[in-house]
């Protein structure tokens, strides 16, 4: 299998000292280009080396050669290091790639070492999410108007989902996570919506609608990453391949066909950042109209 061959080559370079401890390992994108394989295949090669404890993820550095403690211990291991390493794995490979054993391998420690600090993957994912939501910051003084304040919260959350695409995938809106840092965003959004003069039930409904718009668009961030990794096709490449099938499907639906025809002539890129902003404007305009604000 190709990913095994790639892993073997990197393993040899590490053994020969060409890639010493702490050296940066070629990225998934570089490996895919150098070996003519899909990014998913290259990612599997790095994941295999990670499971063997030969490489680990480092914040702002990418994947580097691990320097193991020969005793298999966990000197310098902390809960924060475990959580940050897990976040790095999820950012690069998706939440499904995160495991307690995989995190231990990336850190170059014994497989059971992280359990001294985290009870298991369920707790780890909650800690990851809380840490990620905690990266969002606000000015000391929030905008006084409800519209400007709500827009600020929305853009802050969108930036976090952009940075950590897996974050939007965790739970449905009907099962909110009990996270203090997520509640901090919620408090600011609720303080804006309260200015509309609504009762508690309506306030809750509006907050769900607000968060659902952001999460609903953000869900596609990781889905696009996964589609790119598994297929090796960019959005444009995929659309080009689907054009004949799409034309056949829309035959008989004149509005749909007319829209696609015009877009083909003028050019169109579906940009999720623009969709988010457009949806936010529509939501805020709707609230202003409904509540006379």
Written overview of the protein:
63% of the residues lie in helices and 3% in strands. Helix 7 runs antiparallel to helix 8, helix 7 packs antiparallel against helix 12 and helix 9 runs antiparallel to helix 12. With 293 residues, it is an all-alpha fold. It has two domains: 2-133, Arc Repressor Mutant, subunit A (Orthogonal Bundle), CATH 1.10.10.10; 146-291, Tetracycline Repressor, domain 2 (Orthogonal Bundle), CATH 1.10.357. The protein has twelve helices and two strands. The longest helix is centred in the C-terminal third of the chain and has 32 residues, at 200-231. GO terms for molecular function: DNA-binding transcription factor activity; transcription cis-regulatory region binding. This is DNA-binding transcriptional regulator YhcF, GntR family. Residues 99-118 bind DNA. It comes from Amycolatopsis australiensis.
Q: State the strand order across the main sheet.
A: 1-2
CATH topology of the largest domain: Tetracycline Repressor, domain 2
CATH class of the largest domain: Mainly Alpha
Low-confidence stretches: 69-74
User: What is the number of helices?
Assistant: 12
Mean pLDDT: 88
Largest sheet: 2 strands, antiparallel
Tell me what portion of residues adopts beta-strand conformation. under 5%
Total tally of structural domains: 2
Kindly state the number of beta strands: 2
Return the CATH architecture of the largest domain: Orthogonal Bundle
Determine Rg (CA atoms, Å).
23 Å
End-to-end gap: 62 Å
Helix-strand string: HHHEEHHHHHHHHH
Which overall shape is indicated by the principal axes computed on the Cα atoms? Answer: flat
CATH homologous superfamily annotation of the largest domain: Tetracycline Repressor, domain 2
Overall structural class, as computed from helix and strand content, comes to: mainly alpha
> Helix proportion of residues, in percent?
55-70%
